[in-house]
Amino acid sequence: MKPDREDRLYDRAEAISEGRLNGLYMPILRGLALRKHHRAMLRLAGVFTQDNSRADLGSAARVGDPAWLYRRVWRLGGEYARFAAQNMAMSLFNIGDLQGYRSWLHRGAELGDQDAGLQLECFETRLSHGAARQIGRGRPMRRNGS
């Protein structure tokens, strides 16, 4: 199946961001996000949530904020909706909002995200990755690797 124009533009923006092509990738991502291109919206939200702070995530009510972009992709549905729910859940965990984290895990599980379902079954407020340690929610690795 041949990719459409928007997918080719997105691939070009990815190549620019990785240094394989010359140009500016942010204007391309913003233009695609305005056209409701799901991957571009997720990538744009990911670019703005690098520091794991409440200010970076923004508000789900303010157009253009990463939280708004994640929520928008989730509401539009499709194959990338579960990635939006997963990214939003992890962003909320990283800033210490465990209620929001659990809520977005539920949304991801409803869309068929098996990892979200497993995390809900054994809901933990402490995880073993570095971001959890930064917010005071770290724990040692277990013998089974999780």
Please provide a written account of the structure.
By secondary structure, this protein is mainly α. The protein has a single domain, classed as Serine Threonine Protein Phosphatase 5, Tetratricopeptide repeat (Alpha Horseshoe). It is 60% helix and 0% strand. It contains nine helices and no strands. The protein is globular and about 45 Å long. The chain starts with a helix and ends in a 12-residue tail after the last helix. The model has no long low-confidence stretch (mean pLDDT 85).
- The rough form would be described as globular
Class based on secondary structure composition and strand pairing:
mainly alpha
Count of helical stretches: 9
Largest sheet data: none
Low-confidence stretches: none
The radius of gyration over CA amounts to: 16 Å
Based on the structure, what is the oligomeric state of the protein chains? single chain
Strand content: under 5%
Number of strands: 0
Helix-strand string: HHHHHHHHH
Level of helix content? 55-70%
The CATH topology is Serine Threonine Protein Phosphatase 5, Tetratricopeptide repeat
Looking at the overall shape, the CATH architecture is Alpha Horseshoe
CATH class: Mainly Alpha
Average pLDDT, to the nearest integer? 85
* Separation, N- and C-terminal Cα atoms: 38 Å
Number of domains: 1
Jot down its keywords.
146 residues, mainly alpha
Describe how the helices and strands are arranged.
Layout: H1 5-17, H2 26-34, H3 38-48, H4 54-57, H5 66-76, H6 81-94, H7 98-110, H8 114-121, H9 130-134
